Amino acid sequence: MRTDLDHLPANKQREIERVKTIIFEEFADSIALATMSWKKKGRIEKLILYGSYARGGWVDEPHTAKGYRSDFDLLIIVSDKRLTDKVDYWLKVEDRLNRELAIDKTLHTPVNFIVHTMQEVNDGLAHGRYFFMDIAKDGIALYESDAKELHTPKPKTPQQALAMAREYYEEWYPTAGQFHGSALHSIEQGWLKKAAFDMHQATERLYHCVLLVCTFYTPHVHNLGFLRTQAERIDMRLVDAWPRELKVDRSRFEKLKEAYVKARYSKHYRITEEELLWIGERVEELGRAVHAICSERIASLEGRAK
User: Among 14, 51, 150, 187, which has the minimal tally of Cβ within 10 Å of its Cβ?
Assistant: First the structure.
C-alpha cells in the first residue's frame, strides 16, 4: 500500500496531518483511564486515506453553482472490535473535527471516517466486497503500527456479483419507495413529523441501496450527511439531488438529517409542509439517479456474467 501524499497540494497535506493529530489525541483520551486489559492495550493499527483524495480527482469547489466539495475519507483500523463503538470512542473525534471545520477554521475540508478491525476488513476482502478491494488497491496508509498487510482480495465470480447486486437492489429500492409514499400520505393528513421521519427513511434506504449494489458495503449509520458523501463518491449524478448553493436548501437537508431522532422524540422539532414537499421532490430526484446508477451497474454485471 502506498504511503506518500505527493500528489496532494501542500495545504491538503497539512490538513491531513492535523486530522491525524486530532484522531490520535481523542482516541488516546478515550482509553486513558482504562482498567480492563483489552482496553488498556487498545490501539489504532492503521489509518488509511481512501476515496478521491487517495485516487486523485477530488473536487474542491464550494463556491460554484453546485457548491460541491470532496471530503477526506478515512478508514481507521483498531485492535479490538469493542473499540469500534462510536459513542464510547469516536463521537468526540467527530465533534472535534466538525468544530475545527465549522468554528475554529483550522480545517477546510470535511472529514468522514469509518472504524473497523483488521479481521472485518480482511473478511470484506475475502468476500470480494468492492469497497474494501478499492481501499486495498488505491488507499494510502497514513499510519501503520506494523508492517502487517491487508489480505489479498478474492473477487466474486461474475455470477456471484450479479446475484448479490440484484438481491441488494430488490431488497432496498422498493422499500425506499414505500417510505416515500407513506411520507406523502402523512403530509396530506397533516402528520408532518411522521412525514419527515419517513422522508428520512426513504433517503437513507436509497443511499444504502446504491452503496450496496455498487460496492457490496454500506456503513451501519443513519447519518444522511455521511451516507450522502459516501454515495456521491460513486457517481456525481447523485450530487444533483441536493442543491447546496443556497442556505435555505442546506437548512432543509439539515432538517431531514435531524428527523431520524428529533421528528420522533423532540417536541421542539419543526418542519413545514412547504419544506417537506421540497424534500419530497429531491428524494424523487435521488430515487431516479439511484435507479439509473443501479440499473447500469446490474447491466454491466450481466454482461460479465454471460
Answer: 14
